[in-house]
Structures are given as C-alpha cells and as structure tokens.
Amino acid sequence: MLSRYVPKRLLIGCLLLAAAGPAFADGDADEDDDGRRDQEVVWDARKRGEILPLEVILATVLQRYPGELLKLELDDDEGYLIYEMDVLTRRGIVLEMEIDARTGRILDIEEDD
User: Fold this and answer.
1) Could you tell me the CA-to-CA distances from 16 to 12, 89, 106 in Å, in that order?
2) DSSP output for the chain
3) What span, in angstroms and rounded, lies between the C-alpha atoms of 70 and 48?
4) What is d(CA 85, CA 96) in angstroms, rounded to the nearest whole number?
5) Torsion of CA 12, 13, 19, 24, to 10 degrees
6) Which end of the chain is more exposed for a tag (fewer CB within 10 A), N or C?
7) Which fold has domain 2-111?
8) DSSP states of 96-111 as a string?
9) Which pLDDT band holds residue 6 (cuts at 50, 70, 90)?
10) pTM of the full predicted structure?
11) For 24-63, what is each residue's pLDDT tens digit?
C-alpha cells in the first residue's frame, strides 16, 4: 500500500532511518543534558510507544495527500517531537506539514510558494 505512493529507494531509506532512530533537525543538538545522543533519545521514545513508527505516519499522510515525499525532519519543539515533511502532490503543489510524532495528527499544513 505505501509503496504505491513512495519510490522504493526512498521507502527503503525512510525505513532504515526509522530503524536507526532518526536524528533531531536541530543542527547543534547531538546530545541532551545526560550526554545521550539524539538518536538514542528518539529510539527510546519509539520503544516506549511514546511516538508512532515513521512508516505509520508516512502511510497516513501519503494516503490523505498522495504524492512524493521531498523532505523529512524530526524536530524537538519544546519537548514535543514534530515531524516536518514536504510532500509534492500529484497536482504539482508542495505541501509543508508539521505532524505530531506521538499521535500522527497533522498540526499545520501550508502550500509552499
């Protein structure tokens, strides 16, 4: 189902990213106050069920807005993990989205100018 919307090479890369525990989008946030790497923090949150698997979020977004994933980042917004995605729709419009990593709910969506 997901592979209909996402090119296979991108799908494999995203699944590897999800398995490895994605990094935060903050360029300077390699470690938290405890000295743990961002990937470990995210991976631990995923194992505890505090955030949804990336493949679940991608499937939901691309089912609702069919197209091609252009950009994916995970950002820590004051303690909340937010996926930032750019999707090129089949109509040729780029949608910039913010998705709650815990619930998969789309928090914000805008058309890129």
Assistant:
1) 6, 24, 23
2) -GGGTS-HHHHHHHHHHHHH-PPBS-TT-SB-TTS-BHHHHHHHHHHTTSS--HHHHHHHHHHHS-EEEEEEEEEEETTEEEEEEEEEETTS-EEEEEEETTT--EEEEEE--
3) 29
4) 6
5) -160
6) C
7) Nuclear Transport Factor 2; Chain: A, (3.10.450)
8) EEEEETTT--EEEEEE
9) very low
10) 0.65
11) 444 444 555 555 677 787 888 889 988 998 899 999 999 9
Torsion angle of alpha carbons 62, 92, 72, 76, nearest 10°?
Answer: -90
**Structural tokens at position 85:** 């995605």
**Nearby residues of 9 by Cβ (< 8 Å), 6 or more positions away:** none
DSSP string over 9-22:
HHHHHHHHHHHH-P
- Cβ count near 55 (within 10 Å): 15
